[in-house]
Design a protein that fits this description.
Radius of gyration: 19 Å
Bound molecules: flavin mononucleotide
Largest sheet: 8 strands, parallel, barrel
Order of helices and strands: EEEHEHEEEHEHHHEHEHEHEHHH
Shape: globular
Distance between the termini: 28 Å
Strand order of the largest sheet: 3-4-5-8-9-10-11-12
Strand content: 15-25%
Length: about 350
């Protein structure tokens, strides 16, 4: 592969070498078995899509059945899942990519079909206004501590399964974000109200995951993904999330990942003329910043040089697993050209999302 961009070169992350800075963005392919075990389709999807990236982030593995975001999600909620996860990690690593498992709790953004009957839970009983969701039960303080334990246990299983790291899913309106947002967190105890109280749960999760990650015998990456802000009036503000990013930066995290619709997006709250990406880059300093959202081709990659360290690519890589090397052929050609290798077959379920 020609090396025109800084992302083409090997990168180092928490003592781990990556062959380049392109990452398969976390994607729920909804192809796991009903029990949450890794399926052949999961392995097939990642075998094809890990061929050229530095990191392949497996999307939304739930830490407890009540935290499953959709049917067909991968489970990391019990020890029986370790052998399937091991097979998936080995498949990804066999293609030369680092295998990262994104770990999630859906909170209120799910329903009892997706959770296989487990209760839907949330910081407060505030039902989501979109999606197929059930009315959530308010978590007790004991339950909150149990979920922290579940994130820790999930990390331990990811280590045992041979993954190179985990990404804490604090984005896309799932449980960690629900604790941050004044719209979904109406608690009056130590987990709600002030910003200092709303950051408590996400920070406890991050600290537990980092503590457990010390058990790994080899370098093990811990990333954190967040959505920069909520667009609803009185929703989670970018200021609050910048404060969270600052607190996370003080931990020994490996990277912070921004889940965006457009990598150039501006803050909804017009606090400055800086882009969202630039604001977070300013706060995290030397902590590697991963950026996602509408990265399509060479022009985008060029723009991101110097203001992002890792690029998470979703739809373009779904369409074309050879996207990183095709970047260098894209001048004068369609940037989302679909390779022949890809057309050999992709789990059909992915088309539901395109
Ligand atoms: C089919 C599909 C599934 C996704 N699943 C997840 C997920 O499990 N976890 C997550 O953090 N983001 C998920 N996303 C968001 C992507 O990681 C990414 O941020 C988004 O697609 C924007 O990047 P893109 O414009 O390159 O596609 C999903 C996106 C798609 C299209």
């Amino acid at each position: 592969m020609a090396k025109n961009f800084e992302f083409d070169h090997p990168q180092r992350l928490s003592g781990m070498q990556l062959r380049n800075g392109y990452c398969l963005a976390p994607l729920s392919t909804r192809t796991a078995r009903f029990s949450g075990e890794v399926s052949r389709d999961d392995c097939y999807f990642h075998e094809i899509h890990a061929k050229q990236v530095g990191m392949d982030i497996v999307g939304s593995a739930y830490v407890h059945p009540s935290g499953s975001t959709v049917t067909g999600s991968i489970s990391v909620a019990d020890d029986q899942k370790i052998s399937g996860l091991h097979h998936l990690a080995k498949t990804i690593q066999g293609q030369g990519a680092r295998a990262i498992l994104q770990i999630v709790h859906a909170g209120r953004m799910t329903n009892r079909i997706a959770t296989n009957g487990a209760p839907v839970v949330a910081p407060s009983t505030v039902t989501a206004t979109h999606g197929k969701v059930d009315v959530p039960m308010t978590l007790s303080v004991d339950d909150i501590y149990k979920i922290v334990d579940q994130f820790g246990a999930a990390t331990q299983r990811a280590i045992l399964a041979g993954f190179d790291g985990v990404e804490i899913h604090g984005a896309n309106s799932f449980l960690l974000q629900q604790f941050m947002s004044p719209l979904t967190n109406k608690r009056t105890d130590q987990f709600g109200g002030s910003l200092a109280n709303r950051v408590r749960f996400p920070l406890m999760v991050a600290k537990r995951v980092l503590n457990v990650s010390q058990q790994a015998q080899q370098p093990f990456v811990v990333g954190y993904r967040l959505s920069p802000e909520e667009i609803e009036p009185h929703g989670l503000s970018i200021i609050d999330n910048l404060a969270l990013a600052q607190l996370l930066t003080a931990l020994p995290l490996s990277y912070l990942s921004l889940s965006m619709r457009d990598y150039n997006q501006m803050p909804v709250t017009q606090i400055t003329d800086k882009s969202v990406r630039a604001l977070f880059k300013g706060v995290v300093g030397n902590l590697p910043l991963m950026v996602a959202g509408g990265i399509k081709g060479a022009t985008d990659v060029c723009q991101l040089e110097g203001s992002a360290d890792l690029l998470a690519i979703g739809q373009q890589l779904i369409l074309n697993p050879s996207w990183p090397s095709d970047l260098h052929r894209s001048k004068g050609q369609p940037e989302n050209e679909i390779s022949d290798a890809w057309q050999a077959g992709l789990p059909q379920s992915i088309f539901r999302y395109l």
